[in-house]
Amino acid sequence: MPDYPSTNPAGINYFSMLWSIVTITIHSPVLVQACLVGFFTSSTFTSYWTTLTFLLASPPYNYSSVLIGIFALIGIGSMCFGPPYSRFIIDRFVPLFSVILGEFICITGIIIGTYTGEFTVAGPIIQAFFIDLGLQTSQIANRSAIYAIAPKARNRVNTAYMVSVFGGQIMGTAVGNHLYARGGWVSSGSASVGFIGTALVICFVRGPWEKGWVGWGGGWGIRRRDLGPKGDGNDVEEGKESEVSADLGEINVQSGRDHDRSVAEKVVDELAAEPVGGESRKPSREESSGTGQG
Fold first, then answer.
1. How far apart are CA 286 and CA 180, in angstroms?
2. ∠ at Cα 131 (130, 132), nearest 5°?
3. Cα separation, 202 vs 196, whole angstroms
4. DSSP-derived secondary structure letter, 215
């Protein structure tokens, strides 16, 4: 089914769209920063899960393939933190702050798992949880930043970002396997520490309000500027509730006035129709004038 309304009103052909992915990337500092951070962060994910099998299958663990596969269920716990993290962090602060926070979560887990994993299985378990949580939070924040670049070309922007992420995963698998074969678990994990360190450097090279490629122009503020004075999403909701309450108050006042008016008219009609001498009649004009003269 065609898009309605059309997201391609200019009628750009397929090959021009592919080339526009490159042009959008090279002209957008935000997208380039997100792509580089996604590249290095995703490399630690595949490096960990590839070399984890080698670690757990060898002494002192000697786990079976089924037990090793159960480790994947650790990711369910990190998924539960996605909605509250988005509500309290991503919705209130600039995306770069959320990305940096996710990178620190990743590097914390990698350090714990790398340098304790050969002695206790608790290290790799903590690392799995922290890597999944940090990667998820940083990717959500990166997407919220890049989708504002070209609202009518979000698929192309997302394509550029995901190509860099997949490239990082391929690199992480290759480097992790190579280093594990040469130096073991600590060697491959140390490379992941370096990857996250590189991602953090890229984050700090360009600030959230910088319009160019490098620098912190525009200030150091981490709160979003498109929200109310409190910096959270509750301001808009409270404003809407106030407007609704005011409208309801006006409606109630108007309804009360209409009700009072209808009651007064009803009383006048009843007085005019009171029975005089056993008959219901309205006073004549002469009687009304005579009563007024008396």
1. 116
2. 95
3. 10
4. B
φ, ψ of residue 186 in degrees (nearest 5): -65, -35
Chain centroid to Cα 235, Å, comes to: 18
Model-wide pTM > 0.70? yes
Phi, psi at 223, each rounded to 5°: -80, 145
pLDDT in tens, 227-249: 655 544 444 444 444 444 444 45
Identify the top-confidence range among 8-12, 107-111, 205-209, 273-277.
107-111
Strand partners, 206: 215
pLDDT at 273 over 90: no
- Whole-number percent of the chain with pLDDT over 70: 73
What does the angle CA 169 – CA 171 – CA 174 come to, to the nearest 5 degrees? 110
pLDDT band at 80; cut points 50, 70, 90: confident
Cβ 132 vs Cβ 66: under 8 Å: no
List of E strands, the chain: 275-276, 279-280
Q: What is the DSSP string of 266-294?
A: HHHHHHHT-EETTEE-PPPHHHHHHHHH-
Among residues 156, 147, 122, which one has the least CA distance to residue 12?
Answer: 156
CA distance 275 to 280: 4
Q: How does pLDDT run across 31-43, given as a tens digit for each residue?
A: 999 999 999 999 9
Closest by Cα among 183, 144, 185 to 161: 144
Phi, psi of 279 (to 5 degrees): -120, 145
| Antiparallel, parallel or unpaired: β 279-280 and 275-276 | antiparallel
